[in-house]
Design a protein that fits this description.
There is one protein chain. This protein is mainly beta. It has helices at residues 22-55, 75-83, 322-325; strands at residues 3-8, 14-19, 70-72, 91-94, 98-99, 118-127, 130-132, 136-138, 141-145, 148-166, 169-173, 177-195, 198-202, 205-207, 210-211, 214-217, 224-225, 228-232, 235-237, 240-241, 245-252, 255-259, 263-265, 268-269, 273-281, 284-288, 291-293, 296-297, 307-311, 314-316, 319-320. The strands form three sheets. The protein has a 22-stranded parallel β-sheet that branches. A seven-stranded parallel β-sheet has the order 9-11-13-18-22-26-29, with no helix packed on it. The protein starts with a strand and ends in a 5-residue tail after the last helix.
Length: 330
């Protein structure tokens, strides 16, 4: 006599099994139960994995090589980069403006795993990113070493960190090259060393960049600049800042602290500089054993017109506006 066995599972599909012998019915039924228990477990694990992947963003198309760079088009792509340190030595190209407001951000690159790759913004923007941390080395990119970052706008950023804080990059080192980039919004270094574009620039190059992001620091030894907080053995060329700058000490409309054979060429600052402690300038707050050439400042300053304090730095073809700055000496 034939029997019919129906198995109904959660996906609402019925499977009908037929046999001539009742003994076979029992064996088949037990095997099918085990099979669908395993299948159900696998489906649960699959959905859990998918949820985890969604929380960490979505991998962009590409493979991160020169021929097939990762193509970054959404905030989910940015999240994937920021939470996937294995990608921080790859090549990225942004292919659309990205609204980053409302996302939980982790800077790309940190002290343990630097960003060493290439990010080409292709003249697109990342807008509305908000980030606050009590730690060091914070920006869209936290620590960039030997990296290339170019053709990128960071707009309406709200960035807060303890030390080495920048609207674009917190800390650079190892011949990092930043070009054709800009920031707008606000940046705050709650301890010291912050810049509208880069917090601390070491042994690196910044070219054709600007910042209008309001820049603030602590009331002590701030090292705050409208474009760069500290420029150490690095070169800044063809850049400007219109950022308002406030803090305690070593404040500059363009660079806060400019030392160790660093260079500033063909740059200017127009933002107001207000310090609560001492040593500030319309262009540079403090400089030592470096060069500054073909540069100027026009913003209001409550200390010195062009440079707050200069120790053995060569300054050539530079000026400040004595009327708009309110300062007749530097």
């Amino acid at each position: 006599m034939k029997y019919l066995l129906e198995i109904e599972i959660n996906i609402k599909k019925k499977i009908r099994l037929s046999s001539e012998k009742s003994e076979l019915r029992y064996d088949k039924g037990e095997k099918m139960k085990k099979k669908y228990l395993v299948l159900g477990f696998m489906l649960i694990m699959f959905f859990v994995t998918c949820m985890n992947l969604m929380a960490a963003g979505i991998q962009p198309n590409g493979s991160g090589t020169e021929l097939l760079p990762y193509l970054v088009a959404t905030s989910d792509h940015l999240l994937w980069i920021s939470t996937n340190s294995d990608s921080w030595n790859k090549i990225f190209e942004q292919i659309a403006n990205i609204d980053a407001s409302g996302i939980s951000w982790t800077p790309i690159g940190d002290w343990d795993a630097n960003f060493t790759g290439t990010y080409d913004g292709k003249d697109y923007t990342i807008d509305g990113l908000v980030y606050s941390s009590g730690n060091t080395g914070k920006g869209v990119f936290g620590a960039a070493v030997g990296a290339v970052i170019k053709n990128l706008g960071i707009t309406n950023v709200d960035m807060t960190g303890y030390n080495q804080v920048g609207g674009l990059v917190g800390y650079t080192y190892g011949s990092t090259n930043i070009s054709n980039c800009y920031t707008t919004g606000s940046v705050n270094a709650t301890n010291q060393t912050g810049g509208g574009l880069v917090g601390e620039n070491n042994n690196s190059t910044i070219t054709n960049c600007y910042s209008t992001a309001d820049m603030s620091g602590s009331n002590t030894r701030s090292k705050i600049g409208g474009l760069v907080g500290t420029n150490n053995n690095s070169t800044i060329t063809n850049c400007y800042s219109s950022s308002t700058v406030s803090g305690g000490n070593w404040l500059g409309g363009l660079v806060g602290n400019h030392t160790a054979s660093a260079e500033i060429n063909n740059c200017y600052a127009t933002g107001d500089v207000t310090m609560s402690n001492n040593t500030g300038g319309g262009l540079v707050g403090y400089t030592e054993n470096s060069t500054i050439s073909n540069s100027y400042s026009t913003g209001s300053v409550n200390d010195d017109g062009l440079i707050g304090a200069n120790y053995s730095t060569t300054v050539s073809n530079c000026f400040w506006d004595t009327q708009t700055s309110g300062q007749s000496s530097s």
